[in-house]
User: Fold these one by one.
Assistant:
Number 1:
Amino acid sequence: MPAHNLARVTCSQRPRCPGRSSSRPGRGRSTDVLLTTAPAWWLDPTVWGIGVAGLFAIVVLLFAVLLLSRRRYSMDAREVVRAMEELRSGEIPDPGGSDPGSPLALVFDAMQRLGQDVGARVRSFEEADERTRRMMDVLDDIAVITTDIDGDIRSFSPGAVALFGWDEAELLGQSASLLFDEDEYKRFLPKLARRELREQGIESKVRLQRRDHRTFPADLTVRQLTDKRKNAVGFVIRIRDISGRVDLERRLDAAERRYEAVLSGLSAGIAIVRGGRVIYANRCLAELLGTHPEALDDRPLRAHVATRDLLAVEEALTDVEARGGTTTLDCRLADDQGIPIADVRLDAVGIEHEEGRAVLVVFHDRTEQSRIEEELRRNERRLDSVIEAASDGILLLIESPAGARVHMVNGSFGRLFDLSTEVLLGAAEKELLDALQQAGPAGVDVANLIAAAGHNSRKETFTRSGKQRFDLEVTLVPLIGRDRRPQGRVLVCRDLTTQRETERKLQMHAEQLQLSKVMLEQAYRSLEDANRDLQGRSDQLREVNEELRKLDEMKSNLLGNVSHELQTPLVSIRGYTEMILRERLGPVTDEQTKGLELCLKNIDRLISMIDNLLVLASNESETTRLKLSHFDLRALITEAAELLREKIVGREIRFSSQIEGNDLRVHADRDKILQVLINLLSNAIKFNVQNGRVRVTARPGKPGFAEIHVEDTGRGIPEEFHEKVFERNYQVAQTGRGSEGSGIGLSIVKEILESHGCRISVKSVLNEGSRFRFTLPLSPQQPGARTAASPAPPAEDPIQVAESSLEASARQEFEIEVEAESNDKPQPRFRIIRPEPPKR
């Protein structure tokens, strides 16, 4: 086995594991010896350097001597060779055979000094090797291995042989990776390239492998070996088997988890307090305080005690911590704001914990118990109030070893027999019977019943006539306990005198009602005769109504047919007039242009009147039904604006629309609501000023409805005509202007909205403009929409016009602007402008 040379002994004190108590067995302070060895002396580069240098000098001198005289110095050359052989074998050269006068005498002197130095160095290394061997024999639980720069094992201690189970011959020269678990070596290998290995070494916890392939945990320390020039020549590895320590730590961790699981699983809150501060709290206490256990560490316990109990709790815990013993008191716990949240019973016990005295505090949650007790007290007070307010006389007798006594009596019992409840309460049964015997005939009957019944149930009715007439119903029932044994008796006395008198009066009233019934039957027969006469007249009116309905239907059909027949040629006339006006059939003069524009305007007016007549005829038909659907108001408003595009462009109206809410959907007949919007927008355009403005606003209104406003900046409507504009064939007189409408557009709007269960109203200021407001039922999917399938009935009160101030971020607007081509004949175009929705 190769020799082991002690180069350096370093004692390192391993720190205590964080979070572990120093009082635990096996986890105290431990001293590990770090051994760093150097190679044997004949492997030392210094020795080899000295030897090679001396040998080179001798060879040079020898060649010089041989050149001077081969014969004269042949004997001295043989002596030099002999001395070199002795020096190579590790012995000190003996210059006894050399000639003192020979030129080689100086060589022999230098070799002798070199031999002495080498001998001293060899003896020093041998002594160090012996000390190292002895120390390694003592430290049999530590393995020390040295490797070369490639990681091949060059020396090892006896502890390495015992730890890994390899023979000395098998281990020497093997790669150090043989001692590692395969995966562990791959993880550890990059650490050898770190800079810290050169500066201070590497310490790590790894898994190593014995010869039988069993792995074990170990503390591994690696230091780099360098020569005098600070060049790396190898590594020294210190290994310590920590299987026992790891197993002990695992058992301690398991014990800690079991201990914490037991404490956490307790239904009571547990805390360890030292100096008024919490050093441990279990999960139950944290849940009781509405926090987590870590938040309670090192916090003053007083921060979680209600103010009224703070002084008592602090005094009790201080006394227990100082003197030991136990104490118990009731208190209330509070949250961080000092608000009481739980009633607890506090049990405190003085204990020794780690490095000093402490207090183990157990908190038993009595919140539910206190609530139940308070509820029982409230129920008792409520029951006492009910019993006291009862009109029946109630008395409770409770059995005791000394005999039955009155435990409870209400005021009705005392008033019934003219007795004081203060006298009766707590009286013995005999005293009660004596008092009842003196309370008159009713009391005598009740006393006899109590005495005769014993513990049996009895129910009797006592009746007396004369001046002291009374009817008294007495019920006596036993009070049975949980053990099914009689605990007492309950006596209930009900005065039936008033009830019996009332029953007699009711009998008289019943007889009178019977007589009234006979008279009502006679009157009913007379009404039946009158009803038959009215039924005959109703049939006649129904026939007349049917005839009127047929006539009205004929009128509507005639009106529709005539309107339709008038509309067809008017559309054709309008088309040709527009072509002439646009000079597609030839040039026209300015006078002709004015006449054609007037014709086109009146043709549009006639077509609008005919359209209204057609809508009116359709609405008056009984066969017409609402085709309800769910649709988006924004799309409908855009469609109405597109249909009126030419009118908007012709009057140079600036049209805008504002929809509040991302998706405002309604439940209505889409075609009819489109007709409503077209009529209102047509009026807003028609009666507006040149370059005026028309604005449509839609938003959620009252629950279940959407609210739509149509505003213009036209000439307005006088206030006295606000209600009349919705009447059929009514037109507001305009000064200096002819009639521009048929007077049925707004009446159609009103009829369509009323068929949906909605209303319309107008608010207008003369020469400033008008605002029409109407509502539509929201779709059921909309927030606040009604769940009924049919539209809601119209409200009886007039609809008030109001503007709601909603946030600008909830609004989305779009405007329709008019653009013109750059050619001679401007062609209007529409461009919808949608601003970006506000970022939230």
Number 2:
Amino acid sequence: MSDDCTLCELPVRGEPHTDPDVEGSFCCRGCLEVYRTMGDVDPEAVSADGGDADGERDAEVPDDAETAFLAVDGMHCTACEAFLESTASEVDGVYGVEASYATEMLKVSYDPERTDPGEVGESVSRLGYRANAPEVGTAVAAEERFGRDELRTVLGVLGGMAVMMIYVLFVYPAYLGIYPESFLHESATSVMVFVPIPLISTFVVFLVGYPILRSAYVSLRAGEPNMDVLIAGGALAAYSYSLYEVLTGGVVIYFDVAVAIVAVVTLGDFVQRRVKRRALGSVGDLDFDRVTEALVRDDAGTREVAVADLEPGDETVVKRGARVPLDGTVVEGEAAVDEALVTGESVPETKGPGDSVIGGSIATDGRLVVRVGEETTSTYDRLLAQLWNVQSGGGGSQRLADTIAALFVPFVLGLAVVVAGAWLALGAPAREAVTVGVSVLVVSCPCSFGLATPVAVAAGVSRAADEGVIVTNTAAVEGLADVDVVAFDKTGTLTEGRMRVTDVAAPETDEGALLRYAAAVERDANHPVADAIVARADGNEGRHALADGGALNVDATAGDGGDGTGDASTATVADFEEHRRGAEGTLDGTRVLVGHPDLFAGGDWALPASVESAIGAVQREGAIATVVGWDGAARGVLGTRDTPREDWAETVEALAADGRTIVVVTGDDQSETAAFEAHPDVEDVFAGVLPQAKAAVVERLRGAEGTVAMVGDGTNDAPALAAADLGVAFASGTELATEAADATVTEGGLRSVRRLFDVAETTRSRVRQNFGWALGYNVITLPAAALGLVDPLLAAIAMAASSLLVVANSGRDFGIGE
């Protein structure tokens, strides 16, 4: 039998899950059920975006190769991907490279005996990029990059304003005949015009416009000309011609065109980067959550060592509140271990000697000694590596503007050369032929193309923010409109993500006494269920009551025996002891036990039939049953659960009404998903899915159903969010999940998710309208420029007008109802 899961191909911990009707062995029940449902789907088909090239590249990477990720500063467009891959692949010892413009990441597979990530970073840094390990100061570096972009944009706009002011005061009036042309040759005027304009223009074109010029160079060297080739070509042509005019005593200068091109495009690019700058955010700054040092116990005592130096069999000491460094087995101590960061399970599980623990989990209320496993790995680090791996792959779609550029740019460049040559052949002066060629380049300068997507997306992002959604990946604003399947995580997404006492059954006592005794003991416990019981007793909220273990009914009173409020908060519990699955203590001379029903199954405690019936009723409702007993007998049951969000059904129904398939993927047990399975618009519920397998489930869904959007909040959702075509996370969830997502819901709950889809559909429509206008504009203006009907100045004005129309169309009201 294979040691790896048939579905997600990750190691099977413990006894594998099997079924006679399903071929293979699985790491969890969830993987088994997913394979049963979609087993005939070829998982390789999911990677179609990567193409055969990815498969070939992976095939060339030896099994003993190491993988590193580099955060790259300076990627300006998708052409940078091919250029970086080509450059980094030339480093000796590098087996394969994958670059991603969307996440500004470089994934490198290399031979550690021959090279290292630092050398790869140096190779691309020599070309004007900066590459560093993402784990080191990524958030700070991202803020620094954004600050530089902001400064560059401000300088470009100010420089453009300065040049245009001089043009308005001196140059345009002379062109229009208001001043005689000799006015520009007068010494005082000449100094005020022909000295500052070239200087400022040089600064704007070559310093502010450096990213554009570099992108044009990179795209040409990579053999994939992009829109920046036209932008750079038009700006440089206008600048070079104008500089020639100044040096030869001419007065027909087009520095305004060059400056306007660079300033407008830089501003548009800044808008896009501002939307995108949180895409990586602090994914690389996870040093707080990642364990780098560990306490090792040996014959010489306890010492601190680097986690990387741990070996199989080492015994590590995990203090209360600390994280387990690596996967292993408990050899000493007992503690409630919070694995929510990794597994998504909302309730910590008590671990003792012989139990397996996951690297990255937290010992919440006790000290553990953990023996490191054979593989010296951390599940948390594997999840993080899986996230980087998915985000760094080439799964994103190329920008529509660059797709058009693949045909449009070579056509315009060729057209400009042919037109200028034709005018020369027909006997036109060289200056006139060059002017016509520049007009062709400038009038086609794709500011409208360049702004068509980012401005529409920025408007969509702004509207989404009004609805309580922060978009961190611009592709999401359009891509959500094409989603076929919406996969929801349960805990913290469809539910509130916190435990509450929802069911109270007191068949052997009164409700007030039950709450009083339970809260008094649980007040000293460190567990979400204990916190929920104490909060319920202190707040005495209205709740469901299970009378005599029967049907649910609402009861807002505390019962005949008092409210259990003040007494619970002031009662003193003696001999408190926290168990593996509960807690006990002495209250007013009475021994009280609170915990799992199994604690009452022995001979020391009586379990009346009425309480046993109440336990079954609570569990059938999908709640966690906590039994409360004293004087040697169980007295009642408290049911706690993570309650569904109020708007979950409305959201599911609205998305399903638009023709989308709704599924739920959760690490929780199937008993806790009954309400979602019962909803007619929920197509499938995949319960018990381990975090590593969630990404595999999403990939299967992509292969079987089409485009998939994942909505989640936990760190264990991060790989699934990244593996989905689009990911939406809740800000109340973990940082890693929100950074893996394309959009983050900050307020408005699930209703904001539905509004985000509406915004996406409108944004996609606006983008298409903008491109339609841009294409139509070029169809009209290019022939006019080629015939000499449009000079570079008019071309710049037409270009600006085209961009303004695009902006105006993008900024129209979205018409989304309240």
Number 3:
Amino acid sequence: MSDTVFVGRKAELARLTAHLDKALAGKGQIVFISGEAGSGKSALMAEFARNAQMSHPDLIIGQGTCNAQTGMGEAYLPFREILGVLTGNLETSLVERGIAAENTDRVRKLLARSGLLLIDIAPDLIKLVPVAGSVISPLSKAVLKQAGVDKRLGQVIEQKHDLLELTDQAVSQEHIFEQCYNFLVKLAEFQPLLITLDDLQWADASSVSLLFYLGRRLTDQRIMLVGNFRPDEIAAGRSGGRHPTEQLYTELMRVHGDIVVDLTGFDPVEARKFVDAYLDTEPNRFSADFRAALTRHTRGHPLFIVELVSDLQERGLLAKDEEGRWMEPEALDWTRLPARIDGVIRSRVDRLESGDRATLTTASVSGEDFIAEVVATLQGAPNREVVQRLSSDLSRRHQLVEAREMQRIGGQRISHYGFRHQLIQQFLYGELDNVERAYLHEDTATALETLYQESPDDIVVALAWHYEMAGVTAKAAHYARLAGELAASRHANDEAIEHFNRALALLPTQDMSDRLELLLAREAIYGWQGNRAAQANDLDALATIAGALNNPGAQARVELRRANLARLTSNIAIALETVQRAVSLAERAGNALLEARGYALLGRILLQTGKDGEAREWLELANEIAREEGDLRLQALSLYDLGHTYFGSTQLTEAAQRYLEAQALFEAVPDRRGIANCLLMLGAVQRQTGNHDDALRFYDQALATCRTLGWRHGESYVLSNLGNTYFTLGDFVQAGENHRDALSIRRDVADRQGEALNLDTLGLVAQFQGVALDARSLYEEALAIQRSLDDLRGLAYTLTHLGLLAEETGDLAAAETAQRDALAIRDRRLSRSSAAIDNLAGLARIAQARGDLPEA
């Protein structure tokens, strides 16, 4: 009997179908399937997708799978597969996984649109997918070329800069998540999407976070997400802590309710139904006693049932009668049969011919998925011979493996196969001793290096793992470092840290030059994450290594990082001292670019302390050297900060000129976050000069840039500035709309301080519209947040506004209390800022209204 047939699970299929119906109606859905190994999770998900494909002619399906060997360290692995399919990696994988070939045609018709969407609203996703790489299918390339998309994709892919030398991320993981969300939502406007993720227990942290982000936000779209996992693996945790997938589905269940289809547990009635359905897929004369005994022996475990029946057939204990019907023997001693699934697997493997078994054993070293050409290389056999063995005997006859997909990298064909179940791979791998494993891992790594010469990024994580398992620590450390750099380029910070940690652990202590580079890379990631303690620890270690190397260039790099950390933690005196030391070291090293970075940082530190004139001198010098050295990004950053020095001293014409120059350079880099910041400041300049139409034009451009980037914090900031401009113009309706949009984003991204600012401004809008009750409620909500954050500046402003409202409504006592509270904050805690005049004026009006002219 074939193990590819799907039987049973009618209730579960019906439940999944009900969720799909809601998604197709525009109510986005997320569902999880939970069950132990072999319980049929993947089969259920595939059958559901197959039925959905047949029932809905416009449905597009994207599938991704996590990897038990490398998946936890391979950033966005399942989503890279999904995005690859949606943007052109149309190989045979979907067909082999049971999804109709029709899906390939549907996706291909969507290719030009999806390619353009990727460029226009999700450009940073391009580095995650093979859309312009060597693994995209020739037909897909032709479609993209015909639509004029291929050149634009290539231009985006060629854009590079030294990411780990940046003190600020131009793109963060937040941007990646938002771009992915925007891409899927826009694509679903044309055709609904069903996204499936297999084996979430092996998912990398970035994929789990992205899935959570999508699951929380996909509420009004034609998209359904389905993932499966093993609860025992989830319960075991990860790295000594809670498993990220457990946090994911627990939180999403709190938001969406019961979204887990549970396949765990033994239900005798349902188990018997499954046994009957499976046995009856072929003509048979099996008795009720045999069926009952099979149910009891396997406890209804789907994989155990399938494997045990196959085992009985191979041993000749189940045979066909003269009419071709399967029948049981007259007497079957169930006590002599394997009592566990692993026993059945051993029995089946033991009956393989030696050549077949050797092929599978070699393949097991790669994990559940493997490459036929790698196996052929290790066995010294022709590729065609190994493919024939895998596809014929081991697939069709023994049903132990299956073909998954094919790729072409350069002129090399790569044939992907997989074990029918991971338990089979685990058994075979477990039969190898440590010496055999080490040899096979090293040989597998060497074969992969040769196969993937033209696409090395696809295998760096696997190579690091194979070489570490082989005990080849130098190569393992090398590839772990490359894996960390790749993860960093994909803004997968957790995975980057994990790989850098592994590389450092493998690297000999005396290899100080490589340790320096690894620690610099890790320190940069810690900086992006805001992990200041870890950052400081790495900088201490870096200072020791750079000193031991007696390399002034390395010392300058470290001191620049230390100065920036001191700036970020408001240790200004230390920051100034350290950056000056860095500049001196850069001069000793003869490194003009490092020197320029020092001047730029010195200017930013002085700017932070309000010394605009001094800052300007150093920033001009940094800009001049950066121009001579051809560092466009440093030039742009210097000019942008120069704009601030002029803006702060109200030299608005000069400020606008610097912002425009910086914008042009950010466009050349390109750095969309830098572009958005320049546009925002250009809007601020125009607003200050009273050119509100120009201000709105710049703000609108900044808003579009933030949305393309997926920078929701930036979007909320621009929306707030737009709202303030419309408020100044007296358009309270539009001002309210902008601030409500900003408020929604700030609540979504947990920006509590920004949330309070929007609530305060919405209170002003309501007050000016004459809705006093709404205004008071909004002010009180803002005050509650500001008090919880100890946000004194915001608190003083909102109390001032609340005082004005109370004064307008005739509640002079409340007005006086609010104004005095605001004044007290500004007097005692803020060194009486200039804004205190508003409180004094308010108190004077209140005294005048009471007839107390001396007090007024």
Number 4:
Amino acid sequence: MTGESEGRSDVPPVDTPVGSEVKQPSEKNDADSAALSDDGNSTGGTENGDGGSDSSELLSPRLPPPPPPPPPPKQDGPPRRRGETYAKYLKRTWLCEVEKASMQEWRKKSWHNVRWPMPIIQAFYLQKPGTQATAPSDETSNPDAEKEEAPTPDDSGDLKNLQRIQINSDYLHHELLSIASVSTLWDPLIVPPPYKLFLRFLPEIETRLAKLKGELKEPTVQIDAGDPEDPTEEDASTAGKVTEDSASVPGSSDQTPDEAKTKLKRADTELDADRRDLLMARYNHLECLYQFIQDELREEIEVRRRIADGTLRSIRFEDLWHLVEPGDIIFSKDHGRDQLYKVYFVTGGQALKRTRNREEITEINSIRDKLRYWIPPEQREEDDEETVEKMLREEGSGIGTWSPFKVDCYMMAFDGEYCGPIDVCKKIRPYVGEREITSLPMYPLRFHPKHDALVREMETRGRKFLFAGGHKSYDGRTLAMKRDESRVEIQSDVYVDFDAYYQDFPVKKPSLGKLLRSKQNYAEVEEFCAPGISVYRSLSGHEVDSKLSDDFLTVNRIHLERFKPEEDEISPDHLCLMPHYVIGYAFQLRKWYHLDLALVQEIDRESANARAAGFDDLVIPKRYRDLLVALVDNHASGLQREKEKTKHGAGLPVPTQIDIVRGKGQGLIILLHGPPGSGKTSTAETIAAYTRRPLYSITCGDIGTTPEIVETRLLEHTRRADKWGCVLLLDEADVFLVQRDWQNLQRNALVSVFLRQLEYYAGILFLTTNRPGVLDEAFKSRIHISLRYPSIDLESTKTMWKNIMKRLEDDNKTAQIKVIFDKDALLEFAQRHFEKCDQEGVTWNGRQIRNAFQTALALGHYERLAKMREADMTPEEALASGKKKWTSVKLTKANFQKIAKTATEFEQYIESLRGNDSVNARESELRYDDYDSQRLRARKQYPASSGSRDAGHQGHHGRRGQVGKQKRPVHGGKDTDEEEEEEEDDESEDLSPDEND
């Protein structure tokens, strides 16, 4: 911006170049803010090398926009004399040569004392070419000295010897303006290192020279229409004035037609000659610049040539801008995974010409104050304050320091409905010397040693990303997207759902298609005109970066729009830019995580069959099994209902609605109650695997204890479970099912909230409890089916032992260390142990049997390791030996006896302390374990070949009941045989499946 700061309006523009832009720091409030990009999106910096937009742009205070800068004054030459040919005028005005001087003369030069003729180009060096570093002299330079060979780069630093190139020629300025197609080139044009304007458009300069040379060969010269430098316009207007004056001169009207034609022909000839002279001047000036570039910037030209043909292997920091341009695909390593990006803006990587002024620092401080005091803590981003501090440290450096090289690029993202580009900023910090291109944090894909294979791999991964949603399996560590996040090891089922994640965290939803550009550092292209004067001299450089970015965004506008992946055909370019991660919900930890896409796997049929086999091994009555499978397998999820509605339209009849209130009572609520270890939780877990549904297990800790939190969290969990078609398991749910009273209002509120959620939940919910006596009576009518799990009997105990030993045998087929055991001996121990404990009422339940096997295996492994230590062998040597002694673990009856003795001692201690748990539960009206066990025989009743309902399945399935233990009758008298048969018939009619099933 131009103008003087308040309080310094009387300061004259001393040492300001004629026609250069004069800037005041007080007028730069929003000049450093990013301008609107070509597609209307506001541009701004990005926060760090990992991506995202610069917080300084997003959080900048709303300041009134500064007034637009006035056009710079034009550098006019001396007036053209009357009757003077254009060739003589050009000779008297411009010297078609390059004047070379030192930077000391540049700083002390008087810009207002312009002497004609003026050299079209002035070059300034750290020291005057051909001389040693001496005090500047006021004597005029010898033209012959300008042809001396340019000196080598100064040894005092990394800067090149050539420091400034000033274009004085109006004609050369206009040619560069048309070649680069930019409208912000000031007159005179001052180009500092790295000379982007010249090097980036050098091929266009060559093309323009060839075109001008061809026009000079034509007989009639045509000048570009609307050329502001066309001298013929002035000649035409002058000719008009002469004609008017001649009309008033006596005798002028006496001209014959032939004389008038001759005079007009002479004027056309002179006009054509002027145009040819102008064209020749343009050609000569542009050729002079071209030759100067070839001589002085030959090293940079060679670097660009080697980058173009891919032969460059190492590069300096100041040459990085040659490496990357808008439209390039770059390669980077993110979280240890390959990732491709497409570049749309490049800036930075230059030496600073001035320090950050007070007004700019104040602007950053205002952003920090707004972040601290204006934005609520819950709405703050974790990296905002750190970003502001980085801005103060990085961009507040002094003259001679280097700004980081910034590359604004984009990758594709998915918001649950649409795919589209999101902006990412990659940075390279300044370094000394040269570095291998492939060792940089990011570099163009064409330099990758296996770029073709990498592109194919990225396309495959992109297709996997688009269709990675749904129920998956994950085994590995999660990704930490932010510094304060930690990586977590997960080995469980996950559900990938971007839409559900952004519903829970709407502020994290990406803005697809809105690409922000990094804020350009004006200290790279501005310098103080003179010491002690707060006015700036504008230099060239940033307009080239903006022009290239604008061109790319304009041409590729249609490719930067968001799209629906299932509707539009996805191009390979978009597939390559898909991210390497997905967002999934881990059922084991009940939390959202960023998951490595390479570790997300489908649940294959073999794994699914293995999971489903667990339900077959579950020791529960057959009628329970058939009833649960029928109810769970036929219940539609919320996602399935939505798909059916979308597929068939809203005009189809809705499913049967039994309840008089719409949307009420559509869920499936199942209560499982019984003593601990009887298989309640295992039933819900295995039925989910059997029906190919995810298991969504929550506890009271996931829901909360206050009514407000319970209602919010329970709604979140039930919404996800219904949408994904999960089996929702609330283990030990008696906390929320407890009976209400008139004393505890908070507990009553919890029960009321839970009752309300059960009414309108449309999914599958399993509730387990071992205290059914505390249930509130209102839950009875809301539970669709309630199943009681009695204690296990001898046959059920033996069946559980057989099932576990069968799984050990299956694992021995692939395990390196085999588990050896005597099946008959272990079954004999199981029977004797049950008979002994049954008399004392402390038999093992299913969970205790599983724990006993795990402990026995641990003891067996310890015995093997002890023998290895005695033999002085390592685990690797033991496996390599191949001997059965070192590659097997024994599961012995002796180990089980040790475990049983320890467990019995603990049970006896607890019973002597507080009595029998079953008896205590009955006396406290919490549970009645001996309830009518003969009527409800808990056994796995698989029909025999004869079709008999009571015939037991001869195999690994057993019965559950009470054997060897006297049960107290529930009713006052004994039931007759006829009554028992009638009751069994009623049960068969209500719960049992068809006998021929």
